[in-house]
Every structure is written in structure tokens, then in C-alpha cells.
Amino acid sequence: MNNLINLLPAFVFLMVLLYVSYYIQKTSSSDRSKNFVKDYFIGGRTLGGFVLAMTTVATYSSVSTYVGGPGMAWQIGYGWLYMAIVQVVVVFLVMGVFGKRMALVAHKIDAVTVIDVIRSRYQNDTLANIAAGVIVLFFCATMVAQFVGAAKLFEAVTGFSYLTGLTLFGLIVVVYTTIGGFKGVAVTDAICAIAMLAGLAILFYSMLKTAGGYDAIMTHIQTADPAMLEPLSRGKMPLSLYISQWLLVGVCTLALPQSVVRSISYKDTKALSNAMIIGTIMIGAITLVATWIGVLSKGILTNPSIAAYGGSVDNITPRTIVACMSPFWAGVTIIGPIAATISTISSLLLTGSSSIIKDIYMNVQAKKGQIVTNDQVKKLSMACTLIMGLAVYFIAIVPPDLIWKINMFAFGGLETAFFWVMIFGMFWSKANSKGALWCLVGGVLSYCVTMALGIKVFSLHQIVIGIGVSLILFLLGNSLGQPTEEKVLRVFFPDQYED
Question: Could you give the CA distance from residue 92 to residue 394 in angstroms, rounded to a whole number?
């Protein structure tokens, strides 16, 4: 009976998301009949400030925000929280650096995806097609981590099997993403973001009540593991880890395709400005509270050995929820991390699908002189979204360990691929296609190889090698490549060509 009580809140929440997505699909049918690609992949550029902020926050926040991150905070202490502070600026960076410029360019060239912008800026199909392939590759890795994390949490809290949880929310998110498109995902993302914050608030209150208050928890930490109160945690949180994480989950995230594409979808400048403010507040609240909860979990799960909790930091949040809550409230609370998971998956599915259909297939057909009709695009896009989602679901049936590491690996790969390509492409008129191609291919290869072999420089995460190598290759290739045509530069840098 307790299992059913645990399951009910999450099941109802998922049904609500499914209905919302279906409703939006019905109300958007006329727009899709006119231009399916634009409506399905960027919502017809109609997002307001609140929904834009929430969908960006929900996309960035993932199962690692609830599971991996808090688990590391339980192990390390306040140092992990101080590191997480950098994530507060993510929405501001994405919207502030790329937002308005991306939207202006996208309107001029009628871009629907980030790859559209890259193709137009560098005039290189090889670069654009490889970039689209990189998106699909790393997105699949990220989605596997999301599926696994949410299913494990579901299993630990409800008592139902891992496969039951994976099937329940996994298939529902794949279906509602397929039918709802970008507009449906954006609205359900907003609902998910609110659910995330509510879940954190309930868990925080329950923890304080169970442990006898904040002072009692802090007294226990001070006595049992005082190193947790120090920024460096007596070696557990070295400066090299701070630098690595600030790059990995902070500065370099401004070029992530799944976030940048939202800059193409807003309806006006006011919406962008509101999104920057609301999004910054929300990402700060969700990320910092989730990480702080991880630290305070030390007052609930008091055994200092991670072996007592299954040998993985991924088990800390689920064990904390079970220890603090009745079955019903535990079921309510897991809506938050499930919401974080499915909002990330839905956004990645759409962006990945657009990379395959819009950026590769339709471009190849256009080169052949063949026209792809609106109905064909509709069928192909929805089929691609469905197949990709089901493929990731089947891969996740046999779950890997250390979800946050998988998530961070994919983050780093995408950042290495797109950071300099987007930064130089949007803000340096002398950047050319050879530099961009060398940067993307060489940077990603160096990142993956060093990750596989465990090679580091000064104990820094391999993102430093990836970003460094990609920068060097960009500058080298750029010096050997041909200048970009003036007609392209007039689109991207109109202020330099005022008549």
C-alpha cells in the first residue's frame, strides 16, 4: 500500500504533463500546418519572459542537480556549495551574451537551430554536419544519465523496481515530447521548474524537522566532520577542482546548444530581459538549495562511510528522502528530481531531433534539389524524436554508475565543441571556417582521449585541455584559412558595414 501512495503523486504529475503537451499540440495544429519546422523546434518564436526563463532553467537543471551534486556535497561539505555558486550566472550569461545577438541573426537568416547559425556564419557544410553529429552523440550520453538517475531515485523512494520507474516516466516523457514539440516542452518545463523548487522546499523542511533543527545539524557536522565547514575541506576540495567546476558548470555553459537555442525562440526584447532576471533567481534558488540540502544531509545520514549507503554518492538524496518523510510526502518530493530529469530529456530530444532532420537530412535533400514537404517533415521529425527517445530508454535498462560523471563528461564534450565556435563566430568577424572546423574536431578528440586515458594538467578536469586545445587549433586554422565573404559578415556584423 505504501508503494502505491509513493507512486500516486508522481503518476498524477506525469499525466498532467502529458495532457498539457497534448493540449498544446491541438492548439498549435494550425501553425504546424503552415510551418512545422519553425513551430515544432522553436515554438514559432513566441515565448514570453517567464516561460523562456523557466524552460532554460529546467533544461540546465538535471538529475545531477538533485542526485549527484547533493551527494558530493554530503561527502565534501560547504566547499561543494561554494563551487556551485558559479551556476547562478548561467542564465544571465546565455541570455546576456548570446540572447539578443542570436535572435537578430536568426531572424535575418530564418534560423531554426544553432546549426543553422553555424552553417550560415561559416559557410561550411562539413563543419555544420559534424557539429550536428556531436550534438546527437553527447545528448544521448546526457539523456542516458538522466533516465538512470531518475529511475534509481524512483526505485529507492517508492519501492517499485528500477525498470518500472524507467518505463513509467521514460516512455511518458518521450511521448509528450514527440507530440508537444518545442512549445509543449517549454510550457511543461515551466511546470517542472516550479515542481523542482517546491520539492526542494518540502525536503528542506522535512530534514530540519527530522534532525531537530538547523543548529542540531550544524553541531553534528562540527563534531563529526569539521573539515566539511572549510572551503577546501582539508584537501577534498582542492583549488584545481574549484577551477575545473567553475569552467565546466559555469563559464563554458554559455555555449551549450540546448540553452543557446532558447535565444532563438523568444518573442521580444522585453521577454528576454524578464527571462534573464527570473531565470537567474530560479537557477540560484534551485542549484544552491539542492546543494545545501546535500551538506545538511550529513545530519540525517550520519554514518561517515559511503559504503553504508550503497557505495555511491548517487544514493544520498534517495536515502535522505526515505529517512525524513512519510510515503505520501516522499512521493510528492520525488516529483522535483523527476521534473528536472524529464525537462532536460525533452529539450535534448528536440534539439537532437532537429540536428538529424533539420540540420542534416533537409540540408542534404536541399543540395540534391529535392523539396521536403511540410507533412514529410512532420512525420520524420516526430518519428526521429520517438526513435531517439526509445533508443536511450533501452540503453538505460542496464544502468551505469556515477551519473554526475556521465553528465559532466557530456557537458564538457559539448562545451569543447561549441564554446569557441560560437564565441568567435558571433563576436569576431575574422573567424573563418577552417579555424572553426579544426577547433571543433581537434578539441573534441583531445577531450575524449584525455578523458579515456585519465590525462590531466595540474590536476584540472579535462575540460581545460579540451578548451585549450580547441582554442589553439582555432587560431592556427584561422591563420591558414580563407577570409569569410563580406555578404556573410554584413549579416552577422552589420555595425562594421554601415553605409
Answer: 36
> Which is nearest to 320 in space by CA: 341, 292, 284?
292
Question: Between 160 and 400, whose confidence is greater?
Answer: 160
Answer for the pair 64, 249: CB distance below 8 angstroms, yes or no. no
Q: What is the DSSP letter of 260?
A: H
**What are 457's strand-pairing partners?**
460
Nearest Cα residue to 89 out of 237, 239, 277, 337: 277
Question: Rounded CA gap, 70 and 219, in Å?
Answer: 20
Show me where the domains of the chain are located: 2-415
Exposure string for 304-342, b = 16+ CB within 10 A, e = fewer: eebeebeebbbbbbbbbbbebbebebbbbbbbbbbbbbb
Q: Which three cell numbers mark 125?
A: 557544410
Confidence band, pLDDT 50/70/90 cuts, at residue 268 = confident
- The amino acid at residue 436 is A
CA-to-CA separations, 154 to 9, 164, 165, 332, 350, in angstroms, rounded: 12, 9, 6, 11, 25
- Phi, psi for residue 460 in degrees, rounded to 5: -85, 150
Over residues 47-104, the pLDDT tens digits come to 677 777 777 777 777 777 877 788 889 999 999 998 888 888 877 777 877 777 888 8
Buried residues in 234-256 as b, exposed as e (16+ CB within 10 A): eebbeeebbbbbbbbbbbbbbbb
Tell me, what's the pLDDT at 51? 76
Considering the domain 2-415, what is its CATH architecture?
A: Up-down Bundle (1.20)
**Residues near 27 by beta carbon (within 8 Å), at least 6 away in sequence:** none
